[in-house]
Write a structure and sequence with these properties.
The chain is α+β, with helices and mostly antiparallel strands and 413 residues long. The chain folds into 3 domains: 241 residues, Bira Bifunctional Protein, Domain 2 (BirA Bifunctional Protein, domain 2), CATH 3.30.930.10; 53 residues, no CATH class; 84 residues, Rossmann fold. The chain contains 16 helices and 16 strands. The strands form 3 sheets. Strands 1-5-6-11-10-9-7-8 form an 8-stranded mixed beta sheet. It has a 5-stranded mixed beta sheet with strand order 13-12-14-15-16, sandwiched between helices. A 3-stranded antiparallel beta sheet has the order 2-4-3. Strand 15 and strand 16 form a beta hairpin. The longest helix is centred in the N-terminal third of the chain and has 17 residues. It binds adenosine-5'-triphosphate and magnesium ion (MG).
Length: 413
């Protein structure tokens, strides 16, 4: 036998028995994001490597360790590890800053990160996300958080924790970074290797470390006090306070988390995550925030923006499994030509239907119908002679014989 070729490590097939759950995620996104005025955008799954290096930031884990990059015709290309950079590129390239603000875009699709595969973490995974461009006021931050919560509710997920924080603006953050570096200096040798690099390149990211021994260091009294100190400037504070008042008014329960800094470089002011207690170590379903400088940094007009992304595999593992639907009808008839005609007629009513394509006997066909369909539509010699069909409800075993022109209504009873 020929050697089997296996799927790539960290990738997963979405099988027919799972796909209806995915349809639900996608349909609810289309419906609910539409209610908030969002339009879908579909960008390519590969982009110039430079877009991510500049857009996501070259001190991030994504750019440093996780990108799938390859060369083609002397250009470096990368499979997208996230979709904000691609959406921003398209926003700029297609002159969307000329549209009336806010421009609201949503997307869904596969992302690629070279990470260690484990529960809730794949190398090809899927995200659904939203981006709102053109509004600097905190009402925009509140609305995107509200949208995330509404979407999760539509999937039956009510019991999730929203965590928010403000990481200030590049100006007020500088002073904070310096303080963090000063207070952690004596502990430098005790931090993990990643944190040692972060200490030099991006000290704020230290707080994001998942390593338990680093977390314990950050909880030491003297260090904890510095991390928890109020450092954001007056404007950033006002923005944050207003966001909280909008959230209070909208009944969303949230928790403030000073250690929430998010892994991407482009955020400023508001950052947030939505977490579930049922997901183990990989407990974040949604991550997002404000990124007022990204459009400008990627060469566009100065445009404030805010958005989030959710991991669709993690959403699926939290939502109830949907059983694949059975066929509406299976035509049982020993004359293929007649069977085909009748099956087409049923499909024409908008019902799913199949018939036996391999010439099996009547009883075998009936057995197949019981496995695959809600109704068996039987066309035997008697029925053919009298221009009738028999309809058997395969759940109740109740069978009726009707005129051909009554078949449609018989299939809805
Ligand atoms: P994590 O801390 O879990 O690595 P992240 O901060 O890297 O997440 P984001 O870049 O904010 O994640 O992506 C948003 C969401 O996408 C995450 O909250 C998570 O649900 C999902 N996600 C991110 N990476 C993966 C992955 N490798 N496999 C599956 N889902 C992922
Ligand atoms: Mg990550």
């Amino acid at each position: 036998m020929a050697k089997i070729i296996n799927i790539i490590k960290g990738a997963k097939d979405i099988l027919p028995c799972e796909v209806e759950q995915w349809h639900k995620l996608e349909k609810n996104a289309l419906d609910i994001f539409g209610l908030y005025g969002y339009k879908e955008i579909r960008t390519p799954i590969f982009e110039a490597t430079e877009l991510f290096a500049r857009g996501v930031g070259d001190t991030t884990d994504i750019v440093n360790k996780e990108m799938y990059t390859f060369e083609k015709s002397e250009r470096l290309l990368t499979l997208r590890p996230e979709n904000t950079a691609g959406v921003v590129r398209s926003f700029i390239e297609n002159g969307m800053f000329r549209l009336p603000a806010p421009v609201k875009l949503w997307y869904k699709g596969p992302m690629f990160r070279y990470e260690r595969p484990q529960a809730g973490r794949q190398r090809q995974f899927h995200q659904v996300g939203v981006e709102m461009f053109g509004i600097k006021e905190p009402a925009a931050d509140a609305e995107v958080i509200l949208l995330a919560v509404e979407y999760l509710k539509s999937l039956g997920l009510n019991d999730l924790q929203v965590e928010i924080n403000s990481i200030g603006c590049p100006q007020c953050r500088e002073e904070y970074k310096r303080k963090i570096k000063d207070v952690l200096k004596p502990e430098l040798d005790n931090l993990c290797e990643d944190c040692k690099t972060r200490y030099e390149k991006n000290p704020l990211r230290l707080l994001d470390c998942k390593n338990e021994s680093c977390k314990r260091i950050f909880e030491k009294p003297g260090i904890y006090d510095v991390i928890n100190s109020d450092y954001i400037c007056q404007d950033c504070k006002e923005h944050y306070e207003k966001l909280k008042s909008y959230l209070n008014d909208s009944d969303i329960s949230y928790k403030e988390n000073k250690l929430l800094v998010r892994g991407l470089d482009y955020y400023n002011r508001t950052v947030f995550e939505i977490k579930s207690n049922c997901l183990g170590a990989q407990n974040a379903v949604c991550g997002g925030g404000r990124y007022d400088n990204l459009v400008k940094n990627l060469g566009g007009e100065d445009t404030p923006a805010v958005g989030w992304a959710m991991g669709m595999e993690r959403l699926n593992s939290l939502t109830e499994k949907i059983e694949p639907e059975k066929l509406k009808a299976y035509v049982v008839c020993e004359y293929p030509q007649e069977a085909l005609k009748l099956t087409q007629e049923i499909r024409g009513y908008g019902f799913s239907a199949e018939f036996d394509l391999s010439g099996k006997k009547f009883v075998k066909q009936l057995e197949k119908a019981a496995k695959k369909a809600q109704y068996a539509v039987i066309l035997g010699d008697d029925e053919l002679k009298n221009n009738k069909v028999s309809v058997k409800n395969l759940e109740t075993s109740c069978q009726i014989t009707v005129n051909r022109n009554e078949l449609k209504s018989a299939l809805t009873q």
